[in-house]
Amino acid sequence: MRNSIRHLFVFMLVALIFQLAPLHADYKQAVALYSQGQYAKAIQELKSDLDQNPDWESGHRLLGLCYLGLGNNSLAASELGQAVKLKSSAFSTYYGLGLAYFNMQKYDNCIGVLNQGEPFVAKEKEQEKEKAKLYRLRGATYYRSGKFNEAVSDLTNAIRSGQSDWSDYSTLGAAYLSLNRVDEGIQALEKSLSLKAGQNEAITLLSKAYLNKGVSSLEDRQYPTAVQYLLKAKDYDPKNGNICYRLGETYLLQKKYPDAEKVLSQAIDLQPNNVDAYQRIGSVYENLKKWDLALGAYKKADQISPSKLFKDAIDRVNENKKIPDQKPKTR
Question: Is the per-residue pLDDT at 327 higher than 90?
């Protein structure tokens, strides 16, 4: 999520609207080069004129945006900061400076300069588009700063603007989860994935969210609901041994032994030292009267973590093996 947001903002800078200064022909050429992504050449066009005119606000602004396009956030911040000192009235100045601070993880600085530049959005031709960019960047910055309520507010505004994209929903979902607003977080993250599939961080967050809801339902003995949530978690992260273990535990408590056997076997494959999984699958095998498998599971559990509980289980299984025609003894 971090890299995707940063890259998205960098590419969006190409669409910034400049307030052109008619004083220098080289400036117009620099703007054209910038629009073509030729940032180094644009810098060369600007340098000499800026040396002669150090108070040239438009020159500092464009130079800073060129440095930003090259990924040199420090020089970008220096030039754009100079444009701010020269009382720039272009929103692109404050947005670009905010982005440079964001990339340098100077989050308080980013929020401060975006707040300073917000009044200038009203001067832009595409106000809603620029507002969305402001809310998106500031919302992401609030999220990084741990100010989750503020992040939710700004990102919600970005979405309401009609100019939103997948990153708004992704960061919004993460902020909701941080506030323990789990259902809203899941809804936002799933919306984000519908707009851009394959986001690893969003998938991870959704898996954890559904796992937590499943475990909570399991603890409340709401087994069917727990199964639903845990299956969703498993869909997002099929190689997660803990999810398989919790799902197997739930099936066991429902006495769905074949289902429990299947997912607990998966849990053990993924977490070969999960002593609880061996204990649970041992109980499954006992109920299925698969004595040798039960014995092996309990012995493995005792090998990993020696316990009287497992030794008693081993003795019980050995006793049941001797009397197969009678009702077996279970825990």
Answer: no
- Residue 221 is given by DSSP the state T
Tally of domains in the chain: 2
Which one, of 35, 3, 15, 10, lies nearest residue 129 by Cα?
15
Alpha-carbon gap, residue 234 to 228, rounded angstroms: 10
**Separation between Cα atoms, residue 133 and residue 125, nearest integer Å:** 14
Q: pLDDT tens digit string along 32-87? A: 999 999 999 999 989 888 988 999 999 999 999 999 999 999 999 999 999 999 99
Asked if residue 118 and residue 18 are part of one domain, the reply reads yes
Q: How many residues does the chain have?
A: 331
Residues 35 and 119 in one domain: yes
Shared domain for 77 and 37, answered yes or no, is yes
CA pair distance 164, 129, nearest whole angstrom: 9
Domain that holds residue 116: 1-125
| pTM of the shown model | 0.84
What whole-number distance in Å separates Cα of residue 111 and Cα of residue 98? 7
118 and 45 within one domain: yes
